[in-house]
Amino acid sequence: MFAILRKEFNAFLSSPVAYVVLGVFLVATGLFVWVFPDSSVLDYGYADLQTLFNIAPWIFLFLIPAITMRTFAEEKKAGTIELLLTRPLTDGQILGGKFLACLLLALLALLPTLLYYYSVYKLGNPEGNIDSAATVGSYLGLALLAGVFVAMGVFASAITRDQIIAFLVAVVGCFLVYSGFDSLASVFEGSAAYYISQLGIAAHYRDISKGLIDSRDLTYFFSLIAGLLLATRLVLQSRNW
Fold it and tell me: Which residues contact 154 (CB under 8 A, 6 or more apart)?
């Protein structure tokens, strides 16, 4: 699995896709956090990074499918998938290596944003006047969200040989899981609206972003990731049917 991880990650870094993804993510978040007056921390007047954690999921919604669309679709189109599957590797090892490589690249995009935290920390009045617990929770929420989006993208790539179709399926799937249930919940009232919203990512992401790391939220994210990876593994195993 780690050999696949290294191969995939090195392939990302040797192609312009990785740098375009990292550049677009950092430029977009930087503009929203520091430049645009409606969302700028400097104009907002409060020492927090809520703008970053509000906009990052929507940017990930498009960038992560761009990362994952090639994982299996490119292998199928190039005809190398058969060669890969005949190696002494299990489907789980192949899938795990590709999933972790994509997730690592997504998390790599988050690392430079730690400079945002340091800047807001220093700009606070008094210095350090920032809710660090909520910030840590928000970063954890973004990492888990990236895991779900990557799992969705890898699944989309496994069901087709066309990268564009894989991208579109992943974007739609991520959007429905992230925001679709919240939109559906708005149609209902009372407990029905609450339970429907709990089926989506947004409600659990908001809870973790408050710095309250609940085992129910973690279970939700890990279960969703595991379910999508199992579905992808089932697609790979279907070649034997």
Answer: 68, 71, 72, 95, 98, 99, 102, 228, 229, 232
Distance CA 172, CA 146 (A): 15
Distance CA 166, CA 157 (A): 5
Query: For residues 168 and 115, is the Cβ–Cβ distance under 8 A?
Result: no
Look up the pTM and report it: 0.91
Q: What pLDDT, in 10s, does the model give residues 1-15?
A: 788 888 888 888 888
Q: Which residues are CB-neighbours of 224 under 8 A, at least 6 positions away?
A: 148, 151, 177, 201
Measured between alpha carbons, how far is 14 from 160 in angstroms, rounded to an integer? 24
DSSP state of 113: G
Q: What does the longest C-alpha to C-alpha distance in the chain come to?
A: 65
